[in-house]
Amino acid sequence: MPENKRKRGRKPKVPAADETLDVPSTTTAADDDVFSVSNVEIVPANPSTAVATTNNHLLDHRPRRGRPKKLPKHETPEEKPPPLPRVGHSRAAAENGGAEFVGEVGPAVGRVVPAMDAVVKVFCVHTEPNFSLPWQRKRQYSSSSSGFVIGGRRVLTNAHSVEHHTQVKLKKRGSDTKYLATVLAIGTECDIAMLTVNDDQFWEGVSPVEFGDLPALQDAVTVVGYPIGGDTISVTSGVVSRIEILSYVHGSTELLGLQIDAAINSGNSGGPAFNDKGNCVGIAFQSLKHEDVENIGYVIPTPVIMHFIQDYEKNGAYTGFPILGVEWQKMENPDLRMAMGMKADQKGVRIRRVDPTAPESEVLKPSDIILSFDGVDIANDGTVPFRHGERIGFSYLVSQKYTGDSAAVKVLRDSKILNFNMKLATHRRLIPSHNKGRPPSYYIIAGFVFSTVSVPYLRSEYGKDYEYEAPVKLLDKLLYSMPQSPDEQLVVVSQVLVADINIGYEDIVNTQVLAFNGKPVKNLKSLANTVENCDDEFLKFDLEYDQIVVLRTKTAKAATLDILATHCIPSAMSDDLMK
């Protein structure tokens, strides 16, 4: 009969009475979507909609073939499974502009949408230095990122967003005007920059964001900014998944950081991360890109932000984060602790080396055991109590201090407990991690271009994989060498500009200069002054790998002028060496 004929196409999705409703236990994809918030005022504390199925929701225990069925969209409150602790946004509330509360009987608390008008778009024109040709700069380029307004007519963004800036402009949400901005301070280590705008019109109708406390694990966070993929403001939501000492890629330092599962893409840099009360709890600044991971973003937390702001307010400039100028070793091995004279109830870390240029070198010695810092006991693995059920590296305690502050350190030396009160300072490396916006230094004699080594220099010469491509001698000094004096630099022959006077030396590239005329080379300025004032018949440079360069003094100085004219080089040395 016609009514018994089977119709073509897919079967309708109507669950039969004897079918099993299998619900996936993972979070639905809608939880981490990016959505527009132009009309949103309240985002509710709505629990995640996907939960694990229990036997109370099964009509039949027999397995069913085919694809699993989804939960019905409309359920009575009695049929709802218990909510998970994770807080997500409600798309219904976002569409209707209202609030929606789901949960157990009790007071309903909505998640407040933060002040979106305080989030601005940052436009920057960068002009990077050219380390291969240090007397000129590279071609300028433009970038865009995010920022947000704080109290005192100031704006915060990332340091890498305005690095080597030539011009910075800000645009408010919903505005078609770009306002010129002035950079007040750049904290390279913590990757934060502070800006301001002189035009009063920019500040009209803008309320600064309020900072919140350090969030806990599983707390909901909302990242707001102007990422790639569009011109309007966007929001991604997630939770705090980890709180620990992180490696800040831009500053090459380790400070407290938050790991979140909200997407942080190009352009999100400098944008605020808000909690469910609408308070800022961090600044988005980097993400982990790897084939084995998804949605791992990192946020600069409020303790680091407040340290940067208060440092600027107290000193009128950014002075940096102090560190303890020592290298230490864990004391987890019981035999090691016994050999060092530690008692059963004593814990700490062993000092391996002390930075000769650090203030700590006056009181601390190698093989001292650091037992506590500012009254907080240090464990054998170098951690200290952080919050309930959490531990963190004791460098966090040091980073909470300011440059010039004092700290009480208890050490064990020769089975005796000693107490020291030390002044903390910033760390200086033999090969610095950044040039703090300064152009590279150089000196040219007879076509030999002398320069100083830094991490940006290595990155420019050997690419982002410089840790594998650079010469082993330079990498060894980068990782393990300490400066013996505050003004010590690593001077190298960057390249040789070919001329008749330097025949046979053309292949010398990025080789360290050890001595000049038998005297050790301390830094580039002293080398330039010594060569310029040399009256000897020959200029003799001792290089790494037992190489030597010998030039006749009068001929070399005369040839330098011709070489500068040939390569259109304005001066034989950089401006900082002339002072």
Summary tags:
single chain, 579 residues, alpha+beta, 7-stranded antiparallel sheet, 6-stranded antiparallel beta barrel, 10 helices, 14% helix, globular, disordered N terminus
- Percent helix: 10-25%
Which regions have little confidence, pLDDT < 50, spanning 5+ residues? 1-109
Which overall shape is indicated by the principal axes computed on the Cα atoms? globular
State the separation between the terminal residues, measured CA to CA. 103 Å
Counted beta strands: 31
Discrete helix count: 10
Mean pLDDT: 83
* Alpha carbon gyration radius: 31 Å
Q: Major beta sheet, specifics?
A: 7 strands, antiparallel
Oligomer: single chain
Strand residue content: 25-35%
Structural class of the secondary structure composition? Answer: alpha+beta
Organism: Melia azedarach (Chinaberry tree)
Protein name: Protease Do-like 9
Topology:
Blueprint: E1 42-44, E2 46-47, E3 87-88, H1 91-96, E4 110-112, E5 119-126, E6 141-150, E7 154-157, E8 165-171, E9 178-187, E10 192-196, E11 220-225, E12 234-248, E13 253-260, E14 272-274, E15 280-287, E16 297-301, H2 302-315, E17 326-329, H3 334-339, E18 349-354, E19 369-373, E20 376-377, E21 383-385, E22 391-393, H4 395-399, E23 406-413, E24 416-423, E25 442-445, E26 448-452, H5 455-462, H6 466-469, H7 472-480, E27 491-496, E28 511-516, E29 519-520, H8 524-532, E30 538-543, E31 547-552, H9 553-566, H10 575-578
Protein name: Protease Do-like 9
Structure report:
It comes from Melia azedarach. This is Protease Do-like 9. This protein has 579 residues and is an alpha+beta fold. It starts with 41 loop residues before the first strand and ends with a helix. Strands 25, 26, 27, 28, 29, 30 and 31 form a seven-stranded antiparallel sheet that branches. A six-stranded antiparallel beta barrel has the order 5-6-7-10-9-8. It has a six-stranded antiparallel beta barrel with strand order 11-12-13-16-15-14. The longest helix is centred in the middle third of the chain and has 14 residues, at 302-315. Residues 1-109 have low confidence and may be disordered. A hairpin with a 3-residue loop joins strand 6 (141-150) and strand 7 (154-157). Helices cover 14% and strands 30% of the residues.
